[in-house]
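Final report, Chapter 2: Outcomes

The project's central promise was a pipeline that accepts a single protein chain and returns its three-dimensional structure in a standardized token representation, suitable for archiving and comparison. That pipeline is now operational. To close this chapter, we reproduce one record exactly as it appears in the project archive, with the input sequence first and the structure output second.
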Amino acid sequence: MDTPIYDFVKNYIDKKSHRLHMPGHKGVSFLGCEHLDLTEIDGADYLYNAKGIIRESMDNATQIFGSYRTFYTTEGSSLSIKVMLKTVIHEFSKEGETPLVIASRNAHKAFIYSAMMLNFDVEYVKSSKDFTLCNGVVSPEDLEDAINSADRKPVCVYITSPDYLGGMCDITALSKVCDRYGIPLLVDNAHGGYLNFLQNSPHPIHCGAFMCCDSAHKTLPVLTGGGYLHLSERAKDIAPSIGRFMEFFGSTSPSYLILQSLDLANKYLAGDYSKDLKKCVSDIQNLKAKLIYNGWEIYPSDPLKLTVKPKSFGYSGYDIAEILAKNNGFVEYADPDFVVIMLTPQNSYDDFEFIEKTLNSLPKKEEILPTKLPKLNFEKVLSPFEASKNEFETVAVKDSIGRIASSPNVGFPPAIAVVTAGERISAEAVEIMEYYGIDKIDVIKEHRCK
């Protein structure tokens, strides 16, 4: 498979071109990569209206993923989330009616900020599962209940899968529910770009999603910020709007380093990647088996995550993260109950050996009993857009009971809100925020609340 973006830049470098344009570093090396960094000069194409080398490269990605169209983003899934929502609102909202989006509760803060900018209402699916910060597994029955209880037809359903712990929704089943009601399904597949390359691909674009986005950099060999926005065949009529709305939200100076990374990844993804991925998944399964044999509890997750529930072994998630860090091993995420390790084919044998030896060398201690978090009910007072118009102040979480949140309060990662913009903060919410180490929150100033 050809690599038109990278080839253009390499040819530019080989000609020892006079850099009479941006960027200001002029190819002089401080980091070591500046010579590869360009901007939209003649022949380099334009990301949001691609007709040349970028369009050729995106067509390669379209072929690889089997979508109707795949677009690049150099601003991760955060940009794609805004574009997906803006597009369905533009296409499917009724004049004079505030659009409604039904979403899973574990939506990334980029979704909430979209609601604050685009002025749509949000109704969250009430999951039948116990609350955890990251859990977002929605059943078809939960989704159908949410659609039937809504006061108007939503412009879309928005699902996050895989979630931060690796839990996966049955996208095929959810898409069938959406189809029955004539509602497009959007999927934040930020953690699942690699799913396309598994046998019997569970990637959302093959399971009935109208649109979905991948953060390529999370699980594929792509520089941070590289991502994809995929359109299904049924979304082909909105394809002309995508570039326009990407330009609406995105930087006018997209990174050519990231674009080259996406471009070069195509060649690997179309070649040996599936074979390498299959071996990696097998190695992860073997690692899990060794840990389980030694007494560790492993949480069910997508194939590239190792999610450990260490309390039954006598440790918190924070404890395990700290132990690994002291030995120069740094995890993706930890909280009191879980530690999440993300692995890819680019991890070495030494990485796998390090995890197994470090964890299995720890003495088993007295079990830490799980903390039963209170049931959390969400009282919506204002829409996220209305909340954003009010003045706010930052207060200690312990002093916030009864106040109205002005923005999503999140720990990062996973950038998922316990209480989000426009919701009243309950004592139960305070208990949960404190459990996850969140000690400050932005609230609407009282004199502006009505």
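Archive annotation: The mean pLDDT is 94.
This record, like all others produced under the grant, will remain available to the consortium after the project formally closes.
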